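FIELD: query
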Amino acid sequence: MISFFLKKNFCDGWDNLFFIVASNLFPIIVVAAGFFGIRYAADKPFVIQALSIILFTGILMMVVFAFGANAAKIANFDTPSFGAFFRCFSYSWKVGLLFGIMISTGLLIAKLGILYYLNMFGASQNIIWFLPAALLCWFVIVCAIAFQWFIPLYFLQETNNFSKCFKKSFIIFFDNPLFSIGMFIHNVLLFTLSLCFVLLLPGFSGITISSMNALRLRLYKYDWIEEHPEIANSRVKRSKVPWDELLADDKESLGPRKISSFLFPWR
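FIELD: result
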Protein backbone atom coordinates (compact mmCIF):
# COMPACT_ATOMS: atom_id res chain seq x y z
CA MET A 1 0.00 0.00 0.00
CA ILE A 2 2.82 2.41 0.90
CA SER A 3 4.69 1.89 -2.38
CA PHE A 4 1.51 2.44 -4.39
CA PHE A 5 0.70 5.55 -2.36
CA LEU A 6 4.13 7.03 -3.08
CA LYS A 7 3.78 6.24 -6.78
CA LYS A 8 0.26 7.65 -7.05
CA ASN A 9 1.16 10.72 -5.03
CA PHE A 10 4.10 11.47 -7.30
CA CYS A 11 2.02 10.89 -10.44
CA ASP A 12 -0.78 13.12 -9.15
CA GLY A 13 1.70 15.85 -8.36
CA TRP A 14 3.39 15.60 -11.75
CA ASP A 15 0.13 15.43 -13.74
CA ASN A 16 -1.25 18.50 -11.93
CA LEU A 17 2.04 20.36 -11.52
CA PHE A 18 0.99 23.73 -12.90
CA PHE A 19 -2.40 23.64 -11.19
CA ILE A 20 -0.72 22.94 -7.84
CA VAL A 21 1.72 25.83 -8.34
CA ALA A 22 -1.12 28.19 -9.27
CA SER A 23 -3.22 27.02 -6.31
CA ASN A 24 -0.33 27.62 -3.93
CA LEU A 25 -0.36 31.31 -4.82
CA PHE A 26 -3.43 31.81 -2.63
CA PRO A 27 -1.90 30.53 0.65
CA ILE A 28 1.40 32.24 -0.22
CA ILE A 29 -0.41 35.60 -0.36
CA VAL A 30 -2.00 34.85 3.03
CA VAL A 31 1.39 33.81 4.49
CA ALA A 32 3.04 37.00 3.19
CA ALA A 33 0.27 39.20 4.59
CA GLY A 34 0.32 37.28 7.87
CA PHE A 35 4.09 37.70 8.16
CA PHE A 36 3.87 41.48 7.96
CA GLY A 37 0.81 41.54 10.23
CA ILE A 38 2.46 39.44 12.94
CA ARG A 39 5.69 41.42 12.56
CA TYR A 40 3.76 44.66 13.04
CA ALA A 41 2.16 43.23 16.20
CA ALA A 42 5.52 42.02 17.58
CA ASP A 43 5.98 45.07 19.83
CA LYS A 44 2.33 45.19 20.86
CA PRO A 45 0.80 43.64 24.02
CA PHE A 46 0.59 39.85 24.11
CA VAL A 47 -3.16 39.88 23.52
CA ILE A 48 -2.69 41.73 20.21
CA GLN A 49 0.07 39.34 19.20
CA ALA A 50 -2.08 36.32 20.03
CA LEU A 51 -5.09 37.67 18.15
CA SER A 52 -2.99 38.40 15.07
CA ILE A 53 -1.62 34.83 15.08
CA ILE A 54 -5.09 33.35 15.57
CA LEU A 55 -6.54 35.50 12.77
CA PHE A 56 -3.70 34.61 10.39
CA THR A 57 -4.01 30.86 11.07
CA GLY A 58 -7.78 30.98 10.65
CA ILE A 59 -7.57 32.74 7.27
CA LEU A 60 -4.79 30.42 6.09
CA MET A 61 -6.85 27.34 6.95
CA MET A 62 -9.84 28.82 5.11
CA VAL A 63 -7.76 28.90 1.93
CA VAL A 64 -6.22 25.45 2.52
CA PHE A 65 -9.68 23.99 3.17
CA ALA A 66 -10.96 25.50 -0.08
CA PHE A 67 -8.38 23.42 -1.96
CA GLY A 68 -9.65 20.27 -0.23
CA ALA A 69 -12.35 19.65 -2.83
CA ASN A 70 -9.77 19.68 -5.65
CA ALA A 71 -7.42 17.49 -3.61
CA ALA A 72 -10.24 14.95 -3.24
CA LYS A 73 -10.88 15.15 -7.00
CA ILE A 74 -7.23 14.50 -7.78
CA ALA A 75 -7.11 11.61 -5.31
CA ASN A 76 -10.19 10.15 -7.04
CA PHE A 77 -8.62 10.39 -10.54
CA ASP A 78 -10.79 13.39 -11.41
CA THR A 79 -9.83 16.75 -12.93
CA PRO A 80 -9.40 19.75 -10.59
CA SER A 81 -10.61 23.25 -11.42
CA PHE A 82 -10.52 26.74 -9.97
CA GLY A 83 -14.31 26.78 -10.15
CA ALA A 84 -14.36 23.93 -7.63
CA PHE A 85 -11.96 25.91 -5.44
CA PHE A 86 -14.25 28.94 -5.21
CA ARG A 87 -17.39 26.82 -4.83
CA CYS A 88 -15.72 24.93 -2.00
CA PHE A 89 -14.66 28.17 -0.33
CA SER A 90 -18.31 29.30 -0.21
CA TYR A 91 -19.30 26.44 2.12
CA SER A 92 -16.06 25.34 3.81
CA TRP A 93 -14.70 28.68 5.02
CA LYS A 94 -16.44 28.43 8.39
CA VAL A 95 -14.98 24.99 9.10
CA GLY A 96 -11.54 26.12 7.92
CA LEU A 97 -11.68 29.27 10.05
CA LEU A 98 -12.75 27.30 13.13
CA PHE A 99 -10.06 24.67 12.51
CA GLY A 100 -7.36 27.35 12.23
CA ILE A 101 -8.57 29.13 15.36
CA MET A 102 -8.60 25.83 17.27
CA ILE A 103 -5.04 24.99 16.19
CA SER A 104 -3.50 28.39 16.93
CA THR A 105 -5.36 28.85 20.22
CA GLY A 106 -4.36 25.39 21.36
CA LEU A 107 -0.71 25.99 20.46
CA LEU A 108 -0.64 29.33 22.26
CA ILE A 109 -2.17 27.83 25.41
CA ALA A 110 0.23 24.87 25.25
CA LYS A 111 3.19 27.23 24.80
CA LEU A 112 2.21 29.27 27.86
CA GLY A 113 1.70 26.10 29.89
CA ILE A 114 5.02 24.57 28.85
CA LEU A 115 6.93 27.79 29.58
CA TYR A 116 5.24 28.12 32.96
CA TYR A 117 6.12 24.58 34.06
CA LEU A 118 9.68 24.87 32.73
CA ASN A 119 10.17 28.12 34.66
CA MET A 120 8.87 26.46 37.81
CA PHE A 121 11.19 23.52 37.19
CA GLY A 122 14.15 25.88 36.73
CA ALA A 123 13.32 27.77 39.91
CA SER A 124 12.68 24.77 42.15
CA GLN A 125 14.76 22.05 40.43
CA ASN A 126 11.88 19.72 41.28
CA ILE A 127 11.22 17.21 38.50
CA ILE A 128 7.52 17.20 39.31
CA TRP A 129 7.27 20.50 37.39
CA PHE A 130 9.02 19.00 34.36
CA LEU A 131 6.51 16.16 33.95
CA PRO A 132 3.47 18.31 32.98
CA ALA A 133 5.67 20.22 30.50
CA ALA A 134 6.69 16.93 28.89
CA LEU A 135 3.07 15.73 28.84
CA LEU A 136 1.97 18.95 27.12
CA CYS A 137 4.68 18.50 24.50
CA TRP A 138 3.54 14.96 23.77
CA PHE A 139 -0.07 16.10 23.65
CA VAL A 140 0.82 18.72 21.01
CA ILE A 141 2.73 16.13 18.97
CA VAL A 142 -0.17 13.64 19.07
CA CYS A 143 -2.64 16.35 18.04
CA ALA A 144 -0.40 17.46 15.16
CA ILE A 145 -0.17 13.88 13.85
CA ALA A 146 -3.90 13.24 14.28
CA PHE A 147 -5.09 16.51 12.72
CA GLN A 148 -3.34 15.77 9.43
CA TRP A 149 -6.43 13.64 8.75
CA PHE A 150 -8.93 16.41 9.50
CA ILE A 151 -9.18 17.93 6.01
CA PRO A 152 -9.22 14.57 4.17
CA LEU A 153 -11.96 13.28 6.48
CA TYR A 154 -14.08 16.36 5.75
CA PHE A 155 -13.92 15.86 1.98
CA LEU A 156 -13.74 12.08 1.62
CA GLN A 157 -16.75 11.40 3.86
CA GLU A 158 -19.64 13.73 3.13
CA THR A 159 -21.38 13.04 6.44
CA ASN A 160 -18.51 14.41 8.52
CA ASN A 161 -18.96 17.78 10.21
CA PHE A 162 -16.40 19.55 12.40
CA SER A 163 -16.99 17.43 15.51
CA LYS A 164 -16.96 14.15 13.56
CA CYS A 165 -13.72 15.09 11.81
CA PHE A 166 -12.22 15.97 15.19
CA LYS A 167 -13.22 12.63 16.69
CA LYS A 168 -12.30 10.50 13.67
CA SER A 169 -8.89 12.14 13.35
CA PHE A 170 -7.90 10.60 16.67
CA ILE A 171 -9.60 7.30 15.82
CA ILE A 172 -7.53 7.02 12.63
CA PHE A 173 -4.37 7.92 14.54
CA PHE A 174 -4.81 5.43 17.39
CA ASP A 175 -5.95 2.67 15.02
CA ASN A 176 -3.03 3.31 12.63
CA PRO A 177 -0.25 4.85 14.75
CA LEU A 178 2.76 3.79 12.66
CA PHE A 179 1.05 4.74 9.42
CA SER A 180 0.04 8.13 10.85
CA ILE A 181 3.54 8.83 12.19
CA GLY A 182 5.08 7.82 8.86
CA MET A 183 2.69 10.08 6.95
CA PHE A 184 3.41 12.95 9.32
CA ILE A 185 7.16 12.58 8.72
CA HIS A 186 6.45 12.39 4.97
CA ASN A 187 4.44 15.61 5.09
CA VAL A 188 7.10 17.35 7.19
CA LEU A 189 9.65 16.43 4.52
CA LEU A 190 7.30 17.79 1.85
CA PHE A 191 6.98 21.05 3.79
CA THR A 192 10.76 21.27 4.15
CA LEU A 193 11.08 20.76 0.40
CA SER A 194 8.42 23.42 -0.12
CA LEU A 195 10.55 25.98 1.71
CA CYS A 196 13.25 25.45 -0.92
CA PHE A 197 10.71 26.42 -3.60
CA VAL A 198 9.20 29.34 -1.63
CA LEU A 199 6.05 27.27 -0.91
CA LEU A 200 5.23 27.02 -4.62
CA LEU A 201 5.83 23.29 -4.85
CA PRO A 202 4.62 21.02 -3.37
CA GLY A 203 3.39 23.66 -0.91
CA PHE A 204 0.15 23.54 1.05
CA SER A 205 -1.75 22.16 -1.94
CA GLY A 206 0.71 19.32 -2.51
CA ILE A 207 0.69 18.38 1.16
CA THR A 208 -3.13 18.39 1.16
CA ILE A 209 -3.13 16.03 -1.84
CA SER A 210 -0.63 13.80 -0.03
CA SER A 211 -2.84 13.45 3.06
CA MET A 212 -5.93 13.02 0.87
CA ASN A 213 -4.33 10.20 -1.11
CA ALA A 214 -3.05 8.48 2.02
CA LEU A 215 -6.39 8.51 3.83
CA ARG A 216 -8.40 7.61 0.73
CA LEU A 217 -6.33 4.44 0.32
CA ARG A 218 -6.35 3.70 4.04
CA LEU A 219 -10.14 3.88 4.18
CA TYR A 220 -10.29 0.78 1.96
CA LYS A 221 -9.24 -1.09 5.09
CA TYR A 222 -12.43 -0.05 6.88
CA ASP A 223 -14.61 -0.92 3.89
CA TRP A 224 -13.02 -4.37 3.96
CA ILE A 225 -13.64 -4.73 7.69
CA GLU A 226 -17.31 -3.77 7.20
CA GLU A 227 -17.63 -6.52 4.60
CA HIS A 228 -16.09 -9.00 7.07
CA PRO A 229 -17.63 -8.20 10.47
CA GLU A 230 -16.27 -11.42 11.97
CA ILE A 231 -12.76 -9.91 12.06
CA ALA A 232 -13.79 -6.53 13.49
CA ASN A 233 -12.77 -7.43 17.05
CA SER A 234 -9.56 -9.25 16.20
CA ARG A 235 -6.50 -6.98 15.91
CA VAL A 236 -4.48 -9.85 14.40
CA LYS A 237 -6.97 -10.46 11.60
CA ARG A 238 -7.58 -6.73 11.12
CA SER A 239 -3.87 -6.24 10.46
CA LYS A 240 -3.85 -8.76 7.59
CA VAL A 241 -5.38 -6.42 5.03
CA PRO A 242 -5.36 -7.82 1.43
CA TRP A 243 -4.00 -4.59 -0.06
CA ASP A 244 -3.27 -6.10 -3.49
CA GLU A 245 -6.92 -7.00 -3.84
CA LEU A 246 -8.23 -3.71 -2.43
CA LEU A 247 -5.97 -1.57 -4.60
CA ALA A 248 -6.50 -3.51 -7.83
CA ASP A 249 -8.92 -0.98 -9.35
CA ASP A 250 -6.72 1.97 -8.40
CA LYS A 251 -3.65 0.32 -9.87
CA GLU A 252 -5.55 -0.31 -13.08
CA SER A 253 -6.78 3.30 -13.17
CA LEU A 254 -3.27 4.66 -12.60
CA GLY A 255 -1.77 2.23 -15.06
CA PRO A 256 1.92 1.58 -15.66
CA ARG A 257 3.89 4.81 -15.64
CA LYS A 258 7.28 4.67 -17.29
CA ILE A 259 9.94 7.35 -16.85
CA SER A 260 9.44 8.38 -20.48
CA SER A 261 5.80 9.24 -19.76
CA PHE A 262 6.95 11.85 -17.22
CA LEU A 263 9.63 13.34 -19.45
CA PHE A 264 7.52 13.22 -22.63
CA PRO A 265 3.85 13.37 -21.51
CA TRP A 266 2.63 14.13 -25.05
CA ARG A 267 3.65 10.67 -26.27
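FIELD: remark
The radius of gyration is 21 Å.
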